[in-house]
Design goal:
The complex is a heterotrimer of chains A (114), B (224) and C (562).
Chain A lengths: L14 H23 L6 H20 L7 H27 L17
Helix pairs in contact in A: 1-2
Chain B lengths: L4 H4 L19 H22 L1 H13 L1 H10 L2 H26 L3 H32 L14 H37 L9 H25 L2
Helix pairs in contact in B: 2-8, 3-4, 3-7, 4-7, 5-6, 5-8, 6-7, 7-8
Chain C lengths: L5 H6 L24 H5 L4 H29 L10 H20 L2 H15 L7 H23 L13 H4 L4 H28 L12 H33 L12 H35 L6 H14 L15 H29 L8 H24 L1 H7 L3 H31 L1 E2 L2 H27 L14 H31 L1 E2 L45 H6 L2
Antiparallel strand pairs in C: 1-2
The chains are: A mainly alpha (114), B mainly alpha (224), C mainly alpha (562).
Chain lengths: 114, 224, 562
């Protein structure tokens, strides 16, 4: 370990990078808003989540400086996401494959377009 | 390499604008590195606090797809989108605050933090308007739910989750604003600099987490 | 400053320690400041560990009293001694107190706190103030839960299943909130330990030179940080539903009680690995020291700790086989659950392998570890048995399950805790306890344990349900046997406690490293000074915590010089 007392050894990122990421986030927000108004189908949730994950990755990598840092901090949120995904995967699988009378009551009605 | 005994006893660790070196760390760099890693682990833990609610959401949306879609249309999409843009921009200004402190531009940095706190207030105010409207319309959790045309079971669960998720998120916004105010105070008093910017970094990371969670809440609640 | 060469430093363990004129060092962490304030506001990890020791011991005894009362009632099949309602509250509080006030915090809070910096060659944990804060969080959570207990207590079982927990008139909310706060104490501890292990290792201390206890604590800390927030939130949801009627788990409002179980067990199954992983870490240390041998498969044990932590997250649905979850998912959970047995077995073989061709010194800590190994194998194998879906249909909610988890929680975890207390007692207090009385306490504990819990396997297999106030007459004989066992167990615990308390007050001073261990923590004084080391320890290329291969001959030769 070096004896340096500075918090960051590398030069800080450029101003323009922050602006670019901000603009990208705004654009992606507009995209997700627009897509929601297009035809609603079985993939709408997937698309919305993909856009959200992209936005989250941008925030994590550039605003939270994971792009510049060494490996350890990067995996923390990733691990949290893995376990969240695991919980959701198994819970939803349970609900989708359960004996129907064991499920709570629910009613399906037609979904209008936006 | 064996560290110098002076640093071991913590007497020489004082930076011009930073805190003292703690006795159990050999160098300031290690102390800052440990603190930053600690904050990340804490963020990981905090995000799992929302996991139980996301789990409930995924189950109840699977069971009540149409009711969730109908309820989502009852929310004020304009206000929700505005809040999203607000939080994203406040994340941007917080990141800029870190940028300015690296260039020792304390006034600009403090101003950026101030803007972020302001946008946090804006977020909460808009949320307040949304919730008030919901109370009046009957878009409420559990036994209080009474919106026309939406199945009782799905609607009740959607709004329970909506209020719990946005409520928990709002609590984190408030805590985040408190942290940002603390950091801003440190910047104004020149207790941080390009050599030691931990308060700005810590509060910034927490604020970015708040933004991250909202990035997922927005499509899940408003764009079903 | 000149560092002694590796050979010289190893030889210091071969030198004869002075057998006369042994004194407790004058200044150590215990007498460095004797005001109440110096204890209540301490930032010293060792003092914090002692505070956890006292607090968790109180929890253990309280939970034990509840257990004794339950067992006394069960001497007779019919209503006796107290009401069914009181019985429900007793088993609930027994579970809540034993799990949240003892099993989860004890080994990490006491031994993790005391030993981690010593084993890493550091002066303290990464965040000492946060460490102190975790003690106060524990106190606050415990106080809230006990307040609820005094006002009647919950009668839901420690598992708080809905819809009963959301509708019962009992005082559930204080206990839920108490558990929520205790959860944060656990998260804070875990966070502290993760950062400490990553950032505060001594120069030269690479990951694969870490003591295996550190690996155990590290794996535990990962579970604590990831799983506990989920529990906190789900308990909060029950409290919210009780207070505001949100109906999240209420079927009449479209809620799903099985969802509660999913969310609850997502934490509570990994929680049992929070209880056992530190215990396994203790076993690794004690086996190595008292066999005077290096661990048979160091990397196997280290990787298995991480493996258990990860696989432990995959199997929670095995608690819900008969609750109504999908049969397909139940099958998946059944398979995933069994995978953890691979890592547990690997560790067990390693421990036994460590004893092979070692030079075994059968002292009290080792005696407890022998008990651990025997009961852990039994408990673990019955775990694989109940993980088998069709078999669990018969055994679920019977005394078979109760026996299974008590074999692990008491037979394994508590035995390891006792081993740890006896092993590190000289280090923590600079005193020696009486070996004769220590072994007697261990003996009665083992006998008591077997007589209490083995009959419960038989009871459960014959169909006696758990948590029942009354039972059919033909179960009475085994119940009486089990209750008598609980008295023997209580006696064993009592003898052990008295032995240790006597040692604290009037015990012989212990010389430095009286066990002849190679562990890093024994390089400090007994008891250590407040800052642990005067000079920063450095780990050389040939140095390690298990360098027993550098001695020649038997244990006694190693200790006293040949």
């Amino acid at each position: 370990m070096s004896n340096a007392t500075t918090a960051h050894a590398k030069p800080p990122p450029a101003f323009s990078r922050y602006v670019l990421v901000w603009v990208a986030l705004l654009v992606l927000t507009v995209v997700t808003y627009s897509v929601a108004h297009m035809h609603r189908g079985p993939f709408s949730l997937l698309v919305a989540m993909l856009i959200a994950c992209t936005k989250a990755t941008l925030v994590g990598l550039f605003f939270m400086h994971l792009w510049d840092e060494k490996g350890l901090n990067r995996i923390v949120l990733l691990m949290a996401a893995v376990f969240l995904g695991l919980m959701i995967l198994l819970d939803v699988s349970d609900v989708k494959t359960r004996f129907a009378p064991a499920l709570p009551p629910s009613v399906e009605v037609p979904i209008p377009e936006r | 390499m064996v560290a110098e005994s002076a640093l071991l006893h913590g007497s020489d660790g004082e930076l011009a604008h930073g805190p003292k070196l703690a006795h159990h760390f050999e160098t300031m760099e290690k102390q800052v590195h440990a603190a930053r890693f600690g904050v990340w682990v804490f963020l990981g833990s905090e995000s799992l606090l929302f996991a139980a609610l996301f789990g409930g959401y995924s189950v109840y949306r699977t069971l009540n797809e149409s009711a969730f879609a109908l309820c989502s249309r009852e929310l004020n999409l304009t206000m929700g989108t505005l809040n999203t843009l607000l939080l994203i921009t406040s994340s941007f200004t917080v990141a800029l605050a870190g940028y300015f402190i690296h260039h020792d531009k304390h006034r600009a940095s403090a101003f950026m933090i101030f803007l972020s706190i302001l946008m946090g207030f804006g977020f909460l105010i808009i949320k307040g308007f949304e919730w008030t409207a919901d109370f009046h319309e009957g878009a409420l959790p559990g036994k209080f739910f009474h919106l026309e045309g939406i199945p009782q079971a799905g609607g009740s669960q959607f709004f329970s989750l909506y209020f719990l998720l946005t409520g928990l998120h709002a609590a984190h916004v408030i805590i985040g604003m408190g942290l940002l105010a603390w950091a801003m105070n440190k910047v104004i008093r020149r207790r941080v600099s390009s050599r030691y910017d931990l308060p700005v970094e810590v509060s910034g990371l927490y604020w970015h987490l708040v933004d991250l969670i909202w990035i997922f809440l927005y499509p899940l609640l408003y764009l079903v | 400053m000149s560092q002694p060469s590796n050979v010289e430093r190893d030889e210091q363990f071969l030198e004869t320690p002075p057998l006369t004129e042994v004194k407790v060092p004058r200044r150590n962490y215990l007498n460095d400041g004797t005001t109440v304030r110096s204890w209540l506001l301490t930032l010293d990890h060792k003092r914090i560990a002692i505070m956890y020791l006292v607090l968790t011991m109180v929890g253990f005894l309280l939970g034990g009293v509840f257990a004794l009362l339950i067992r006394i009632k069960l001497l007779t099949p019919g209503p006796w001694l107290f009401s069914a309602n009181a019985y429900n509250r007793l088993f609930t509080m027994h579970g809540v107190v034993m799990i949240f006030l003892f099993l989860i915090p004890a080994i990490p809070g006491v031994f993790g706190n005391f030993l981690l910096p010593l084993m890493l060659g550091a002066k303290d944990v990464a965040f000492p103030k946060l460490n102190l804060f975790s003690v106060y969080l524990y106190l606050a959570g415990a106080a809230l839960a006990l307040w609820g207990l005094v006002h009647g207590g919950a009668d839901t079982g420690w598992t708080f299943y809905t819809p009963y927990s959301t509708t019962t008139p009992a005082q559930v909310v204080p206990i839920l909130l108490g558990a929520f706060i205790l959860g944060f104490s656990s998260i804070v501890t875990g966070l502290n330990f993760i950062v400490t292990v990553h950032t505060m290792r001594a120069p030269g201390l690479t990951w694969f030179k870490l003591p295996l206890f550190v690996w155990g604590i590290y794996a535990t800390a990962i579970i604590q940080v990831i799983a506990t927030p989920v529990l906190g939130m789900v308990l909060l949801l029950v409290a919210v539903e009780r207070s505001f009627g949100f109906g999240i788990f209420d079927p009449s409002r479209g809620g799903d009680p099985v969802l509660f179980e999913h969310l609850f067990w997502f934490y509570s199954h990994p929680a049992v690995y929070i209880m056992i992983l530190p215990a396994m870490g203790v076993v690794s240390e004690v086996v190595a020291c008292f066999s005077h041998n290096r661990p048979y498969g160091y990397k196997v044990i280290a990787y298995s700790s991480l493996g258990i932590a990860f696989i432990g997250f995959l199997g929670w649905g095995h608690h819900m086989f008969v609750s109504g979850e999908s049969v397909f998912i139940a099958g998946a959970f059944s398979f995933l659950t069994m995978l953890v047995g691979v890592f547990s077995a690997a560790k067990t073989f390693s421990w036994v392998g460590t004893m092979y061709k070692g030079s075994v010194d059968f002292k009290t800590p080792f005696a407890y570890i022998v008990g651990f190994l025997f009961f852990f194998v039994f408990g673990g194998m019955t775990g694989v048995a109940v993980a088998t879906l069709p078999l669990d249909v018969h055994w679920h909610d019977t005394y078979f399950i109760v026996a299974h988890f008590h074999f692990i929680m008491v037979g394994a975890a508590v035995m390891a805790y006792m081993a740890a207390v006896h092993y590190w007692f000289p280090l923590m207090f600079g005193k020696k306890y009486s070996e004769r009385w220590g072994l007697s306490g261990a003996f009665f504990t083992f006998v008591g344990f077997v007589v209490t819990f083995f009959p419960q396997f038989l009871l459960g297999n014959e169909g006696m349900p758990r948590r029942y106030y009354q039972y059919p007459d033909h179960f009475q004989v085994l119940n009486v046997v089990s209750t008598v066992g609980s008295w023997i167990l209580a006696m064993g615990v009592g003898v052990t406690l008295l032995t240790l308390i006597y040692a604290l007050i009037a015990g012989e001073p212990a010389e430095k490293n009286s066990w002849g261990s190679r562990g890093f923590e024994w390089r400090a004084d007994c008891p250590p000074i407040t800052h642990n080391f005067d000079t920063q320890p450095v780990i050389g290329p040939h140095d390690g915590p298990y360098s027993y291969h550098l001695t020649h001959g038997t244990a006694s030769e190693a200790k006293h010089g040949s």
